[in-house]
Design goal:
The complex is a heterodimer. By secondary structure, chain A is an alpha/beta fold. Chain A has 7 helices and 10 strands. Classes of the chains: A alpha/beta, B mainly alpha. The structure holds adenosine-5'-triphosphate and magnesium ion.
């Protein structure tokens, strides 16, 4: 659960109060209105000029950034693929957190969940945009974090894949009692999934 | 061995024929560089003459403080040179770290070479200490400049990748590890590569100098081998000290990447 109070950041964000307390929260708004910036605020990738962000009633300034990010996993808007094969890319999160590595079966299961037909030993350099995006999604889902911040996770997908993948993610979030805060351009889908829909414009919440 | 042929001023002045040839060529081709060539030749001559006299004085009056002063001057110039050749704006803490690593890495290696390996007594014997330190400092200076440019370049080009690693829960050290290793590699590679061709495609300067001044080639190569290893040690020490501490300076206390700015191009 997140709450922001009197959040100011340059001339980009100006939010008096917002509470994100439902399991699925969708953030929508025109390009450049500050959605990504707000998401980055929530896991300390950006520091507000003034105001505060609370995670489970705790001011995030009192939580170490690394610990917070290990609990609140963010997927950035641009998919980032690391050098190496599909397996390397799926394991990188666990490696960076020094966690026990999941088995190949688990990795294949995650690929399947994202409707990806890739081999674990396949090189990632030539993946399509949508494949990269789903690979990055599979990577963060494997981390099994309590909270997810997803920035336009379906931007590179066709409507058919977009629907089935978002369905899958939202179902998983509910089944596992996690929280999802998602920026999306798919307004109709957002309206069906979101238990809380937050509209932003010009750095403000409407 | 035979004595060195003392090059007289008159003999030396014949060498300026080479400079004249160059001036004639640029004149003839209309490349307006006469002035620069002239100035460069004069500066080289005057600077080296002054250095010759100064070194003569230092050699004739060996003392620990004069040698230390020379080391200090050498290292200060080297540090300033690094600052000048780095294409990015460095925070004061970064500059301090660069100076510290360069001083530390070079001095430790130079002293080990002079005191323990060649066993010069007293340790400040300028005839050995100064040229040896000069070579070590020069190489470390080039190395740390390469490492700095590579690290800054990597941190700004790979910003998205590093941020992604941070979002996946990496510590700053973990997130910058690939860049650190690349920067280290970039910094030591030219020296390591030069060692590969040494003795076959190049005769190193120090060795050539010693041979010209009458040292047995078999002795000269021993010095050359020793100094190459000392240079390698100094490079490794300087660069790793800098990189291990330096990578942390790219992050804020909350593990966010700081902004990296290029120097204004003059
Ligand atoms: N660190 C920063 N410093 C200055 N300006 C920034 C910074 N980060 C983002 N901006 C600017 O802030 C505005 C909001 O950016 P943001 O990425 O949050 O928009 P967005 O709502 O996610 O847009 P989109 O839907 O296009 O992704 C943009 O005008 C952007 O150029
Ligand atoms: Mg955005």
């Amino acid at each position: 659960m997140f709450e922001v109070r009197d959040l100011r950041f340059k001339n980009i964000l100006n939010i008096d109060k917002a509470v994100f307390n439902k399991p699925t929260v969708c953030l929508i708004g025109p390009s450049g209105c500050g959605k990504s910036t707000l998401l980055r605020m929530l896991n300390k990738m950006e520091e507000p000029d003034s105001g505060a962000v609370f995670y489970n009633e705790l001011d995030i300034r009192s939580i170490s950034a690394v610990n917070l990010r290990r609990e609140v996993t963010m997927l950035p808007q641009t998919p980032i693929v690391y050098e190496g094969n599909v397996r390397d890319n799926l394991l990188i999160g666990h490696k960076l957190q020094h966690r026990e590595l999941p088995s190949d079966d688990k990795l294949e299961e995650a690929l399947e969940q994202m409707y990806l037909k890739l081999k674990l030993d396949q090189d990632t350099a030539r993946l399509s945009g949508g494949e990269k995006q789903r690979l990055c999604l599979a990577r963060v889902i494997l981390l099994d974090s309590p909270v997810y911040l997803l920035d336009e996770p379906s931007a590179a997908l066709d409507p058919h894949n977009e629907k089935r993948i978002l369905d899958q993610i939202v179902r998983w979030i509910h089944d596992q009692n996690k929280q999802l805060i998602m920026v999306t351009h798919a307004v109709e889908l957002a309206q069906t999934y979101a238990e809380q829909l937050i509209k932003m414009d010009g750095g403000k919440i409407e | 061995m035979n004595d060195v042929i003392n090059l007289s001023i008159w003999q030396l002045s014949i060498a300026y024929v080479f400079m004249l040839i160059l001036i004639l060529i640029v004149r003839w081709r209309g490349i307006h560089r006469e002035k620069l060539i002239l100035i460069a030749s004069v500066r080289m001559t005057v600077q080296l003459m002054l250095m010759g006299w100064w070194l003569l004085y230092v050699f004739e009056n060996p003392s620990w403080w004069l040698s230390s002063l020379m080391l200090l001057i050498m290292l200060s110039f080297a540090t300033a040179n690094v600052y000048k050749r780095v294409q990015y704006l460095m925070a004061p803490r970064m500059k301090l770290l660069v100076a510290g690593s360069l001083f530390g890495g070079s001095l430790i290696s130079a002293l080990i070479f002079v005191v323990i390996i060649v066993q010069i007594r007293p340790w400040y014997e300028p005839q050995y200490l100064i040229p040896i330190s000069g070579m070590i400092v020069g190489n470390s200076m080039t190395g740390i400049t390469l490492a700095l440019n590579r690290l800054y370049g990597g941190m700004s080009e790979k910003r998205d990748l590093i941020e992604n690693s941070l979002m996946l829960g990496a510590t700053p050290r973990e997130a910058s590890k690939p860049l650190i290793n690349q920067a280290f590699d970039t910094a030591i590679l030219p020296t390591v590569n030069s060692m590969v061709g040494m003795g076959i495609i190049s005769l190193p300067g120090m060795m050539t100098g010693q041979i010209l001044s009458g040292t047995l080639p078999t002795t000269a190569i021993r010095y050359q081998i020793g100094i190459m290893l000392a240079i390698l040690g100094s490079l490794a020490l300087t660069i790793i000290t800098f990189l291990v501490i330096g990578c942390r300076l790219f992050y804020t206390g909350d593990a966010r990447l700081v902004d990296i700015k290029k120097k204004e191009q003059a």
